[in-house]
Design a protein that fits this description.
The chain is an alpha/beta fold. Helix content is 30%, strand content 18%. It has two domains: 159 residues, Rossmann fold; 184 residues, NAD(P)-binding Rossmann-like Domain (Rossmann fold). The structure holds nicotinamide-adenine-dinucleotide.
């Protein structure tokens, strides 16, 4: 029997987990693709674009009959109750943010694989949705800042006078931060960046930005590439360094996160008072508390003339390419876990071991 791969429509997201182009590229032997009616329409892929590649089906049919079900965010409880015991549900369950996730999934008979638990290794790079989505968010954060800034990004020499280039401070030089640096540089800004991982220094410098070092950071090589919690004494020194630079910055892009914990607060309320009127802060860490003390998640506020944008899902604002990239990641994963057109979950495999949160 051929493998049925079902794609659900997202409840609160414009993206879709698999695009027509993803299906076209699939090398999974004899797979049959089912797409929920209207699943791709908000990302720019209407049902007609899937014709000849996937069959349009009802949500109920996919939940009850598909062998693999793919989504971006987990479906609700009513949906989960309909999935049969032999199925595999692939989604982003974020168990590191919500410790009840594993317990909830254990109540159901089907298997669950979390894309955001795939190890951040070179082998799994092509399946890394955290990186592909963070990269879009970093890019969008800079465009959003430029749009809200009442000043230019690039240096301008015109007959009406010269304009100095904007100064951008990037806090956290992981995937989103590095993309924010690259985008700011392309727009002509002068960029400085902070990170606690020593490996970030060279990457920041190679993009033409200055790396601001605060000595004494804890850098744990055993943390899978992730940052670890810093001491309160270190964070206080870092906040002082941020304050000194914030008063000269036009834009601050915040991306500093510690997986499974609240984001470190690195811009205190008092720092905003020292910033230039019209400056913009885009806080991508908003959903885990924010790097700025005044950030409000999913809101844009103005304090003392400074615009503070709290948004941790900017990738949703670019649904077409975001869907294409997410789909490529998920397709690479599915190719890895199938053999001769059938599911082949090898528990000794590092990728399966890390991401199959409900076997
Ligand atoms: P993340 O979203 O968890 O955090 C963003 C950045 O914030 C990180 O660079 C982190 O070091 C930094 N940070 C945390 N606390 C900070 C503080 N107090 N001050 C300043 N910066 C702080 O990270 P991410 O973007 O998901 O990347 C995680 C790691 O995974 C990175 O090392 C990245 O290079 C690595 N990675 C590796 C691969 C691979 O194939 N080997 C692929 C993707 C990502």
């Amino acid at each position: 029997m051929s493998l049925i791969i079902g794609v659900l429509k997202e409840n609160k997201d414009k993206r879709v987990a698999i695009t027509p182009d993803n299906v076209k590229r699939s090398k999974i032997k004899d797979a049959t693709w089912w797409i929920e009616t209207g699943a791709g329409s908000e990302a720019g892929f209407n049902d007609a674009m899937y014709e000849g590649l996937a069959q349009t089906k009802s949500r109920e049919a996919i939940l009850k009959e598909a062998n693999i079900i793919v989504t971006i965010f987990p479906p609700g409880e009513t949906d989960l109750a309909q999935i049969h015991g032999e199925a595999l549900l692939i989604s982003q369950f974020r168990p590191y943010q919500d410790e009840t996730v594993n317990g909830k999934l254990a109540q159901y008979p089907f298997k669950s694989l979390s894309m955001d638990m795939i190890p951040r290794t070179t082998l799994a790079q092509a399946m890394d949705v955290l990186s592909s989505m963070a990269s879009i968010a970093g890019y969008k954060a800079v465009l959003l800042a430029a749009q809200n800034l009442p000043r230019y990004f690039p240096m301008m020499i015109t007959s009406a006078g010269s304009i100095r280039p904007a100064k951008v401070l990037v806090i956290g030089a992981g995937v989103a931060g590095l993309q924010a640096i690259a985008t700011s540089r392309k727009l002509g800004a002068i960029v400085e960046a902070f990170d606690v991982r020593s490996a970030a220094k060279e990457e920041v410098q190679s993009l033409g930005a200055k790396f601001v070092e605060v000595a004494g950071a804890t850098d744990d090589k055993g943390a899978g590439g992730y940052a670890v919690q810093q001491s309160e004494e270190y964070l206080a020194r870092q906040r002082a360094e941020v304050q000194a630079r914030a008063s000269k910055a036009d834009v601050i892009i915040c991306t500093a996160q510690v997986r499974g914990r609240k984001a470190p607060v690195l811009i205190e309320a008092d720092t905003i008072q020292h910033m230039r009127h019209g400056s913009v802060i885009v806080d991508l860490a908003a959903s885990t508390g924010g790097n700025c003390a005044l950030t409000e998640n999913d809101k844009t506020i103005k304090v003392n003339g400074v615009t503070i944008i709290g948004n941790s899902s900017l990738e949703c604002e670019m649904p077409e390419d975001a869907s294409q990239m997410y789909g490529n990641n998920i397709l690479n994963l599915m190719t890895h876990i199938t053999k001769e057109g059938q599911l082949n979950l090898r528990m000794e495999d590092e990728i399966v071991k890390g991401s199959l949160i409900k076997p």
